[in-house]
Amino acid sequence: MPKTPSQASTAWHSPLWYQRFFAWAMATAAQGYETKMADRKRQLFENLQGEVLELGPGAGPNLPYFKPHIHWLGLEPNPYMHPYLQQQADELGLNIEVQTTTLADIAISDNSKDVVLCTLVLCSVPDLESTVQDILRVLKPGGQFLFIEHVMAPAGSFLRQVQTGLCPLWQVIGDGCRLDRETGKVIESAGFANVDYQTFEAPVPIAVVKPHIMGVATKAS
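The chain above was modelled as a monomer; its predicted structure follows.
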């Protein structure tokens, strides 16, 4: 049945409607970014093996880089992402397990994952420091945390001032995404045995999300 104007307005502002829209947007509008980031992702994910946990896999842009022999668990709190994930996995011949939750809300055993990975996720978790500590906790000794994240621009830069000013509005339109996180520093101070990452400008047209980091943090053996 067609919605009346009032029903359509209610649907537009409801969290479920927004989750559905955001899932569609991530599955369609992000293709340009993914194409331009393909070489970097290929490099970062080339040696994945064993028990792999991905946080916030979204519509599955990282799945094409994974080998069929890994055991992949994705924690994706937006249920409208799941059909896109499953379709992508079916096309690639991957067996995946997806749960509608976050790392903070699921009991994953300590020292149980060979790899934890996330891309463009830590910008929107409610508690960045706690999330990184949970990642460290669930990794096996010698396990690796792989990440690509947009971050705050260098101190003193004009772009950093713009990010700070836009952050409240950006959180609303970006499903909780924050522009003011210094994620690299948080990972460095979390207690990993080694943290190795590079900073770069992502090939995106929106300046406030150009500053990126990509790297690997390794848990002590």
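Helices lie at 5-13, 15-28, 31-45, 82-92, 128-138, 158-173, 183-188.
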